[in-house]
Amino acid sequence: MARVFVYGTLKKGQPNYKHMINTAKGLAKFQGRGRTVEKYPLVIAGKYNIPYMLNIPGTGHHVAGEIYSVDDQMLQFLDEFEGCPEMYQRTLMSIEVVEWEGKGSAGEGRAGAEGIMECFVYSTTTYPPEWVGLPYHDSYDSSGKHGLSYVLRESR
């Protein structure tokens, strides 16, 4: 099992969460909530209002999201879904655990003493330079006050 940190449309209550609970695509078990240890720019960009975490450590905000434990099948699905490695790149990042729900033995999935764990995150280094000038968010909600509703793939 691998740990994945999701910050956008795959979170609970967001437009693509249905994929995280579709066992035909693999297994994803919600473990808890977290935020990036380093700051990153989280922008909403493109004509479909897609959330992107730009891989520019030290700029932006500590981005909030959810931590999942996923099997190999789900990880492969997520790579395809996220257009990895062209649109997003899957990299390991340090995530601070804010709230932990994960159950299991003490050795399984617990954060370190500081509450920090390494998770795969889909961020991007392949973006138009003007995206750096977009507003930065610390948390994503498709129906947030930004007014930039995500356009589902089925509707494009």
CATH topology: Hypothetical upf0131 protein ytfp
Mean pLDDT over all positions: 92
Number of domains: 1
CATH architectural label:
Roll
Major sheet, described briefly?
Answer: 5 strands, mixed, barrel
What fraction of residues sit in β-strands?
25-35%
Order of the strands making up the biggest sheet: 1-5-2-6-7
**Rg over alpha carbons:** 15 Å
Q: In the CATH hierarchy, what is the superfamily?
A: Gamma-glutamyl cyclotransferase-like
Number of helices: 2
Structural class: mainly beta
What are the low-pLDDT stretches, counting only 5+ consecutive residues below 50? 105-109
Structural notes for this entry:
The protein has one domain (2-140): Hypothetical upf0131 protein ytfp (Roll). It is 9% helix and 31% strand. The chain has helices at 17-20, 72-81, and strands at 2-6, 28-36, 42-45, 50-53, 64-70, 89-100, 116-123. A 5-stranded mixed β-barrel has the order 1-5-2-6-7. It is globular and about 35 Å long.
